[in-house]
Structures are given as structure tokens and as C-alpha cells.
């Protein structure tokens, strides 16, 4: 188990907050929140004040990954738009405060839907949840990056090809065993990269349990979380990622990662695609490529989590299922590709 005081020491953090957000004699309380298995998220409370703190995970980190200041910059750029993102509060680049760079953002109260759907969200509400997921993603993808100071966040040209190359390199860092399906899918992806694609701010990890919904009905998506992988690139990669995490009735869940979208009321993937196309005007092409790319990347990412678990640097027994879940993901990605 992660000891919050070890990874977010309250004494230096309190001094930092007193300097930048006003002094207070009230003690800090730090509590780990969420089930995020990459960057770590904590709720920091001081009297009636409360913030969310984000910091990198413990253990070995891939090059350029877990850049807290970049994530803070993305939230700052989106703060003046209709994009549903938490409001950033304060960033710290000095690793001497808590040991790593970190930032604070506002607390967004609500519910995060994981394996179970809250009881107040019945069949009709589940349909609205699907619509809200698409609408919030379309709002992000139709923001002009340069208008919010994010025109240099990444290079959209060649984004998808670089994703294949980058995650191939990540596999070399993260792999704990040989998985031939990873290599077969890599070769298929490299040979089938779409030649023409739109460009937008992409989230990189857009799925049902990375957003906050209000607890009341009808459901309203309040905030998109976990912006660590945001960049400029192909928005259909985000859509493919969402579709990958959207199994329909009668379909299996992706190994070890149950999703509730098989329940009655959740719209089929075809309805999500149609609504997204209407909201953005983007042509819906090569979606099987993007869905396969998403699952292949997820297999590599979760292999990295499994590596940290084996090294004793990950919190929770959940990670043990990745011994079999990662090979299952790789096998399904190969099946989807037809390679």
C-alpha cells in the first residue's frame, strides 16, 4: 500500500502552499483517491480548502512520460474554453518540495463510473451517458489549438506513425517477457497507418472511468481527468480508444478491465460513431485501425504497470492479473488486425 505521507510529505507541501496560496496554521490532510495506476492522485485538505494533487508514479519512468508541468499547461490552456476539464490551481517544478514536480487542480465532485453504474442511472440515463461521452470528446477535438496557446503542444503531422514507433520503443523498456503478438500487431500497424487524418488536441486516455459525472439525473459529464498523454495529433485515435473500451452486450471485456457498457441502455459503438461524426464533421475512416492501435498501446502500457508491480513499486493486488491480461490483450489486438 502507498503511504501518502511518504509520497506527498505534508510539512514541505504545507510550506509551499502557505507561500503561494496564503498562510494557514491548519494542518494538511492527504488522502489517495481514485484507481489511477499511472500518475498518482491525492486529495489535499486544509480546513475548508481542498485541492487535487497530481504527481508522477514511483519507480522507473519512460522518457518524457509523466510530465506534470506539461499536463498543467494543457489544463491552463483549456481553462477558458468549453472543454470539460478541471481548473488548474498551482504547479511546482521544484523536486525539493515533495521529491518530484507536481500540480494542484480544483476538486470536481461527482461519480466516476467503473465496473458498476450508480443506481440512479437507469436504462434511459445510460443512453445519455454515451451521448455525453461523445459530446465532451467532440468539444475537445474542435478547439483550435493555437487559439488557446497550445499550437506547439505536439506535431500533428505523422502523429499516428510516430505513435506506432514510440510505443514500439516503449515495449523495449517495459517488456518483462516475450509476446510475439505484440510484434505481429506492430508490423501490421506500421504497414496500415492512415495516410490522411484530421488534426486536433487529443487526450490520449479517453474512457468512461477517466471522466466525472454529476450524481444527479439526467447525467452530465462534468470533467475529463488524466491529461498526462494529451498532445496534438489524430483525434480518431481518441475515438478508437473510447470504442476499444466500449464492449457491447454479448461481447467479452478486455482482459482484466471490466466495463459496464454491455448493460441495457448503453448505445452501441455505431451510435457513438454517428454522433461523433455529426458533432465534428470528421470522416469516419480506418476505425478498426484506431481501435486495434488503442488495444496494442494498452497492452504495452499495462505491461509497464506490471513491471512496476513486479518491482514492488505499484500499489494493490489488482496488478497481479496483468500476468495473463497483457497477453490476452495482445492476442485480441492481433485478432482485430487480422494479421
Name of the CATH architecture of the largest domain: Alpha-Beta Complex
> From the helix content, strand content and strand pairing, which structural class follows?
alpha+beta
CATH homologous superfamily annotation of the largest domain: Aminoglycoside phosphotransferase (APH), C-terminal lobe
CATH class of the largest domain: Alpha Beta
Radius of gyration: 20 Å
Helix share, percent: 40-55%
CATH topology of the largest domain: Aminoglycoside 3'-phosphotransferase, Chain: A, domain 2
Outline the biggest β-sheet: 5 strands, antiparallel
Q: What is the string of SSEs from the N terminus onward?
A: HHEEEHEEHHHEEEEHHHH
How many DSSP helices? 10
Distance between the ends: 41 Å
How many strand units? 9
Query: What's the number of domains?
Result: 2
Our estimate of the beta-strand percent is 5-15%
Characterise this structure.
By secondary structure, the chain is of the alpha+beta class. The chain has two domains: 4-105, 2-Layer Sandwich (Phosphorylase Kinase, domain 1), CATH 3.30.200.20; 123-337, Aminoglycoside phosphotransferase (APH), C-terminal lobe (Aminoglycoside 3'-phosphotransferase, Chain: A, domain 2, Alpha-Beta Complex). 40% of the residues lie in helices and 12% in strands. It is built from ten helices and nine strands. It has a five-stranded antiparallel sheet with strand order 1-2-3-5-4, covered by helices on one side. It is globular and about 60 Å long.
Amino acid at each position: 500500500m502507498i503511504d501518502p505521507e511518504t509520497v506527498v510529505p505534508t510539512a514541505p507541501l504545507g510550506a509551499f502552499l502557505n507561500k503561494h496560496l496564503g498562510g494557514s496554521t491548519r494542518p494538511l490532510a492527504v488522502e489517495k483517491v481514485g484507481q489511477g495506476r499511472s500518475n498518482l492522485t491525492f486529495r489535499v485538505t486544509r480546513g475548508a480548502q481542498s485541492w487535487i494533487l497530481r504527481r508522477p508514479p514511483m519507480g522507473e519512468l519512460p522518457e518524457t512520460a509523466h510530465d506534470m508541468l506539461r499536463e498543467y499547461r494543457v489544463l491552463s490552456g483549456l481553462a477558458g474554453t468549453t472543454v470539460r476539464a478541471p481548473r488548474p490551481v498551482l504547479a511546482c517544478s521544484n523536486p525539493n518540495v515533495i521529491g518530484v514536480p507536481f500540480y494542484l487542480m480544483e476538486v470536481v465532485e461527482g461519480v466516476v463510473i467503473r465496473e458498476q453504474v450508480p443506481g440512479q442511472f437507469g436504462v434511459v440515463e445510460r443512453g445519455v451517458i454515451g451521448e455525453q461521452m461523445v459530446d465532451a470528446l467532440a468539444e475537445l477535438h474542435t478547439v483550435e489549438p493555437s487559439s488557446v496557446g497550445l499550437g506547439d503542444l505536439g506535431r500533428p503531422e505523422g502523429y499516428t506513425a510516430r505513435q506506432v514507433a514510440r510505443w514500439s520503443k516503449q515495449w523495449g523498456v517495459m517488456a518483462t517477457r516475450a509476446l510475439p503478438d505484440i510484434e505481429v500487431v506492430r508490423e501490421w500497424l506500421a504497414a496500415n497507418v492512415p495516410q490522411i487524418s484530421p488534426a486536433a488536441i487529443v487526450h490520449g486516455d479517453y474512457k468512461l472511468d477517466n471522466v466525472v459525472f454529476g450524481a444527479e439525473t439526467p447525467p452530465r459529464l462534468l470533467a475529463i481527468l488524466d491529461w498526462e498523454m494529451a498532445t496534438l495529433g489524430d483525434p480518431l485515435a481518441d475515438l478508437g480508444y473510447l470504442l476499444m473500451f466500449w464492449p457491447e452486450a454479448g461481447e467479452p471485456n478486455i482482459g482484466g478491465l471490466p466495463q459496464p457498457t454491455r448493460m441495457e441502455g448503453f448505445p452501441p459503438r455505431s451510435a457513438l460513431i454517428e454522433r461523433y461524426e455529426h458533432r465534428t464533421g470528421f470522416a469516419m475512416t480506418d476505425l478498426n485501425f484506431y481501435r486495434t492501435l488503442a488495444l496494442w498501446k494498452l497492452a504495452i502500457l499495462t505491461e509497464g504497470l506490471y513491471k512496476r508491480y513486479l518491482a514492488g513499486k505499484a500499489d494493490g493486488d489488482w496488478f497481479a492479473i496483468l500476468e495473463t491480461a497483457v497477453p490476452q490483450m495482445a492476442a485480441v489486438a492481433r485478432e482485430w488486425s487480422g494479421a
